[in-house]
Design brief:
RNaseH-like_sf, about 40% helix, single chain, globular, 2 domains, mainly alpha, about 5% strand, two-stranded parallel sheet, 5 helices
């Protein structure tokens, strides 16, 4: 996640995750308080990011992420990968395609990059740098 914090053109202020152990240790603690030792909670604290959790057993709260993960599963089911490098290259190509080439219905038939660039024009103070189109997925 620290790579995400560095690469994002905007300042991250909030992170919404599910309750899996990959993201937090809060569910195994008294009153749901984090131990402060989980890497994601530590990174959020270090970066001043508010880490919020979706309610347990309600994945629809994080519906956009769930749909994106479903699309990734479909992509991966359609290809034969021989090693980790091919997996990483496939995921990177899909990320570039999704963010810069595929208009999203919930974004008014715009790509995520188009929406981000438009938001930058009206809120440049919320960004660390100007967003740009990702390279073509074929590169």
């Amino acid at each position: 996640m620290s790579n995400l914090v560095r690469r994002a053109p905007f300042r991250l202020t909030h992170l919404l995750t599910d309750n899996e152990a990959a993201f937090t240790d809060r569910l195994n603690r008294p009153q749901g308080q984090p131990s402060g030792k989980h890497p994601v909670d530590q990174l959020c604290a270090d970066q001043g990011i508010a880490h919020r959790l979706i309610p347990p057993r309600q994945p629809q709260t994080n519906g956009l992420v769930e749909r994106f993960n479903g699309r990734i599963s479909e992509v991966l089911a359609s290809v034969h990968l021989r090693n980790r490098e091919e997996l990483e290259a496939t995921l990177e190509r899909y990320r570039r395609l999704y963010n810069g080439q595929i208009p999203q219905k919930n974004l008014g038939a715009r790509t995520p990059v188009e929406v981000l660039k438009a938001y930058y024009e009206s809120n440049p103070d919320r960004f660390r740098r100007k967003p740009h189109n990702p390279p073509s997925p074929d590169i």
